[in-house]
Structure formats: C-alpha cells, structure tokens
Design brief:
Layout: H1 2-30, H2 36-54, H3 64-91, H4 94-101, H5 104-115, H6 123-140, H7 151-175, H8 181-202, H9 209-213, H10 215-243, H11 245-249, H12 255-266, H13 273-298
Helix pairs in contact: 1-10, 1-12, 2-8, 2-10, 3-7, 3-8, 4-6, 4-7, 5-7, 6-13, 7-10, 8-10
Family: Belongs to the EamA transporter family.
Main location: membrane
Pfam families: EamA
C-alpha cells in the first residue's frame, strides 16, 4: 500500500508540473487584456470557488498553531510567490527569472533539513541541482539572449524561489494534521486571497465583464483557475504529503522542459540544439537528485 501511495504521489506531482509547464500559453493570451495582478486574482477566485463545489465540507481547525500554518502557506505559496514572480518579469529578463526560480528545490531541501529535521542535502543532491540548473540555463538563454544582471528583478525572482520553499515546508506540516487535501488547499487559497487585499488597495483591479466573457479569455481563465490552481495545487499538496517536500520539489526542474516541448507542439517553435542539450541535462539532474532520496529512503 505504501508503494502504491508513492506511485500516486509521483503521478500527482508529474501531473501538476505538466500543467504548470503549459500555463504560459494561457497567461500570454490573457496579458493582452489583463494585468498580472488581475490574472492572479481571478484565477484563484475561480479555483477557490471550484474547491468549495468539489468539497463543501467546512474544515475544522484544532488549534491556533494550525491556523497560523495555513495563513503562512497562503501568504507564501499564493500571494508572495506569484506576485514576486510576476513583478520580477517586469524588472528583469524572463530567462533570468526561469533560471533563478529553478533554485527552489535547493532552498526546499535546506529548509526541510533545518526546520523539519529532514535529510541533509548531500553531494549527490547538489550534483543533481547544478546539472539541472546548467540545463535550465541552456534552455533559458537562447540566441540573442544575454546574461544581464537586474538587481531588483533578480532579487524578486530569488525571493519567489525562497517563498515557494517555505510554502513546501508549511504544506508538509499541514499534511501532518490529517485534514483532507481539498479542504486544506481551499483554506490555503482563502488566506492567499485575503493577503492580496492590501495589494488590491494599491493596484486596484478592473472588472470588465466584456473582456472576461470573451470566449478565448474565459477558457484561459477556466484553465488557470480550475486546472492550474484548484486541481494542480490539490495534486501537488497531496504529493508533498505522500513523498515529502524535497522529492516533490525536485520535479520543478522539469517545468522549463515542459514549456519548451509545449512551445514546439502549440506555437510551432523549433527545437534548437542548445535547447535539446539543455533538456537532457535538466532531466539528468532531476534523476540524480530524485534517486538520491530514493536510496536514502530505502536505507
């Protein structure tokens, strides 16, 4: 049964990463009519409503400590992560952001070791991390792309990677409380939306029914809200609960790979030799890191 749960955990994690790797297409379409903050707010409102419909049971919190954990998860994994990632894209190159955020598994392993008394990141994990980052760098910096430092944007991207690592730690703790994954994810979304309110006061959103009801915009919002937010956060949180924070976070290395493959299939973009070698390196890094934790778990 334990092996079966682990299999489901890996499948759930792979599904989340696959969907998240394709979201750039929907986001790219929506950015023609909406601001990054509007896209973020509407997608999580849709996701929050969907989770209520899927499981209308009220979550019973047992202590203040649990409530604080949910609040911190919502703040880190929804509000801060997506806001910093979106704003980072306005201050620095997309290639910088994609490469820096891929460092999230490193910070996750570090936080897991420090705060959850998990396994100490060893040489094998670091070798996998460096290999994957090298591969992601090859994918990100293409053609005329150059390495260009933009302190504010790069700092925001690094902060986003750190907050996602913190989110992984909080979701691991939440998983130990024994709540249903859907109800727990919905609670996280609630706090994520709640913490967006101060930002909305500074950067108010526009509710343009005509734009939202446009068939293309509506379908993309539904994909981001129902698929990339509601469903994928549930499957991701389930994977964290079953596999642990580190083994789950390693899958993040595959996001740029999925993005490149999706670009080829949907946008008819060509696969360069540099991207090909980048994909190979990234997958090798993922396998090295993942196998390291499988061996230690078996021991």
């Amino acid at each position: 049964m334990n092996k079966q749960n682990h299999l489901y955990g890996h499948l759930a994690c792979a599904f989340s990463i696959f969907v998240w790797g394709t979201t750039f297409i929907s986001t790219k379409v929506l950015l023609r009519s909406f601001t990054p903050l509007e896209i973020l707010f509407f997608r999580f409102i849709i996701g929050y409503a969907a989770l209520w419909i899927a499981c209308p049971r009220i979550l019973k919190i047992k202590s203040i400590k649990e409530e604080i954990c949910f609040a911190c998860a919502g703040l880190c994994g929804v509000t801060l992560y997506f806001l910093m990632e979106n704003f980072a894209l306005t201050y620095t190159l997309t290639s910088n952001v994609s490469t820096i955020i891929a460092a999230a598994p490193f910070f996750t392993a570090l936080f897991d070791w420090i705060f959850l008394r998990g396994q100490k990141p060893g040489i094998r994990f670091m070798a996998g991390f460096i290999t994957a980052i090298a591969g992601i760098g090859l994918i990100s910096f293409q053609g005329n792309s150059v390495v260009e430092l933009n302190p504010l944007g790069d700092f925001l991207a690094l902060s986003a990677a750190i907050t996602w690592a913190a989110y992984s730690v909080f979701t691991k703790k939440i998983g130990e409380y024994g709540h249903g994954t859907i109800e727990a994810t919905r609670r996280i979304f609630f706090y994520g939306l709640l913490f967006m309110i101060p930002v909305l006061a500074i950067l108010p959103i526009r509710f343009d029914f005509e734009k939202i009801s446009n068939a293309s915009n509506l379908l993309n919002f539904l994909f981001l809200g129902l698929g990339a937010s509601a469903l994928c956060f549930v499957t991701w949180n389930y994977a964290v609960k079953v596999l642990g924070t580190v083994k789950t976070s390693v899958y993040i290395y595959a996001v740029p790979v999925i993005t490149v493959i999706t670009s080829m299939l949907v946008l008819n973009e060509s696969l360069t030799l540099q991207s090909f070698f980048g994909i190979i390196l990234t997958l090798i890094g993922l396998i090295i890191s993942e196998n390291k934790f499988k061996k230690q778990a078996s021991a």
